[in-house]
Amino acid sequence: MSNSDPKTRERPGPWPPVPESSAMPPSSWAKRTGFRPKFSGETNASDSGQVVAPSLPPPPPQPKAREPDAAQPDLEAGRARAVNGERESEKVLPTLPQTDKDRTVKKRRDSDGPPKSSGQNGQAQGGPTDQASRRPVRSEEVVDVLPPIVDDDDFVGRHAHMKYELRDSPGLVPIGLYGFQHYISMLGSLILIPLVIVPAMGGTYEDTANVVSTVLFVSGVTTLLHTSFGSRLPLIQGPSFVFLAPVLAIINSPEFQGLNGNKFKHIMKELQGAIIIASAFQAILGYSGLMSVLVRLINPVVVSPTIAAVGLSFFSYGFPLVGTCLEIGSVQILLVIIFSLYLRKVSVFGHRVFLIYAVPLGLAITWAAAFLLTEAGVYNYKGCDANVPASNIISDNCRKHVSRMKHCRVDTSQALKSSPWFRFPYPLQWGTPVFHWKMALVMCMVSIISSVDSIGSYHASSLLVASRPPTPGVLSRGIGLEGLSSVLAGLWGTGTGSTTLTENVHTIAVTKMGSRRAVVFGACFLIALSLVGKVGGFIASIPEVMVAALLCFMWAMLTALGLSNLRYSEAGSSRNIIIVGLSLFFSLSIPAYFQQYGISPNTNFSVPSYFQPYTVASHGPFRSKYGGLNYVLNTLLSLHMVIAFLVAVILDNTVPGSRQERGVYVWSEPDAARREPAVTKDYELPFRVGRVFRWVKWVGL
């Protein structure tokens, strides 16, 4: 059927027309078409043009049978492995090559059919499939990413390697099991931050238990909100490591050093005020549509060093604290490494148990071993008491073993015994928040960094579980709701904001579970668990050295996840190598200058050595007559992630480079997304809420 509309009319092909012929070798085909592939290492970067509305396709040719050597899926890399030394992206299509202007979105036959094949950065591709296999079989096998002939009507199931996709509902029992598994595999990201910041604020074990319960409650509530009214992707919300460094900098501010009574509640109220203001700023950034504009500046070359710098910034905290009890901390690290690497392919009942549960398994085994050593009296020394402060110990023998008594024993915490069985976290439980503009400005910058982190997570997770990447409006809606979620975190008093956890993408790829309902079920379970006070007390009783050992692994994983975003760009490009290298180097070097400025070898600090980098506000190089301005500049420029973000975003957006080389993120065009039922079902708001706000074009489909 012809189409007279000039806007939707099929564009003419190249002139003069190329005669149809059989498939040519890659070298001959490339010479005739002028095609110049740009591949670097493992990167399969495609031109990241905007996804546009579909046009009428030509009559489809008959699909050819698949070759027996089909590519096997590489789930952790998010693409198919090469077969017989040939990269999937280098397979030659015998059809006429498409220009950039001819690339359009192919319309799906129905909303429940398999999604179309997608390129490495979300670019639409076509491919054949048999009529009988309209719904791809969920197995470890996956069809070719680029088949021999492109078919405009048929398409390839891109998510065949996923057990459950975004809108799948496998049943009540599987949903419960997979939801529980999803949260247990991310246990470290949810509980470790309160175990670090509460003792730093002078809180007791009971305070730690209460904050842990509050974090679990707020994480469950915000995850429900995000999966329902945010991006609607199966992403767990919680206290991100992005907030840890600025929170420690505020905790170690000069005005809090002389506090004695109620130091924990006083600092917590200051943190609540800063988080609430910064979260309101993030919500305005999202719901006003400004994020749709700023997202043009944020690409993989920016996201990668920014998130990597978050993990690298805590090197002074990790192993120095593990060294206080090497026989426990080093064993913990080794166990997690063995489970996550050497035993990662071992399956039990079809599940990679050791890879999925590496952190909780390592914690459980090490904790049990430390308990046996404690009960056996290994850390008992004659005439020494672990509960006596180190300053009051007179015996030289006891002073020599004081570190082992305090850090290796597992019976020093009374949090489990003193915790109630039932406790309901309520807002303003620590008191009325206190607002100071200088701390709020620091947190506002951190909220921008957390938004950058979330943008990378949205894009990567959508390629795994959704039919298309979200539109810029859906992205803005997700960032706006994250701001509102952080407001709730500030009101309840978790000590940090609430944002999308970076580890979501790794968990989805490993567990092959992308069902939104499973994450919702897990969030409900987490809320119920937070009401049991003994759960918070049990988590708060984890020895400090084990917390540090787990954090060493978590921060290393965070660094790797950040750098993995480079797979959407040309990682071998000299432009990108220099930008990422400069961003990472200056993210370590410039904060080191600020942290070491004005410190003499004889300087006495009232904080442990691993917290000294966060005392920069008291001795930084900015010393003008405006104390608040000095505080903001000294603190922000001492944060590794801020320097990495500023260097990367300036260089990536000023140094010339093609869209393919930069790996510019592809977001679905709203008009094209609204015409595809599958995309609409993936991202539209439930209960027909989207119809009420349909006029708000910048925060929806």
Question: Top keywords for this entry?
Answer:
27 helices; 701 residues; two-stranded antiparallel sheet; two-stranded antiparallel ribbon; mainly alpha
Task: Please explain how this structure is put together.
This protein has 701 residues and is mainly alpha-helical. It contains 27 helices and 4 strands. Strand 1 (73-74) and strand 2 (79-80) form a beta hairpin. Helix 3 (187-200) packs across helix 20 (544-563), helix 8 (300-312) runs parallel beside helix 21 (574-596) and helix 10 runs antiparallel to helix 12. It is globular, with a radius of gyration of 27 Å.
Give the secondary structure arrangement, pairings included.
Elements (H helix, E strand, L loop, with lengths): L25 H8 L39 E2 L4 E2 L91 H14 L1 H14 L4 H25 L7 E2 L5 H8 L11 H25 L2 H5 L5 H13 L5 H5 L3 H17 L10 H4 L1 H18 L20 H12 L7 H4 L18 H29 L6 H21 L6 E2 L3 H8 L4 H15 L2 H8 L3 H20 L10 H23 L30 H10 L3 H15 L4 H4 L7 H6 L1 H7 L5 H4 L9
Antiparallel strand pairs: 1-2, 3-4
Helix pairs in contact: 2-18, 3-4, 3-20, 4-16, 4-18, 4-19, 6-15, 6-16, 8-15, 8-20, 8-21, 8-23, 10-12, 10-20, 15-17, 15-22, 21-23
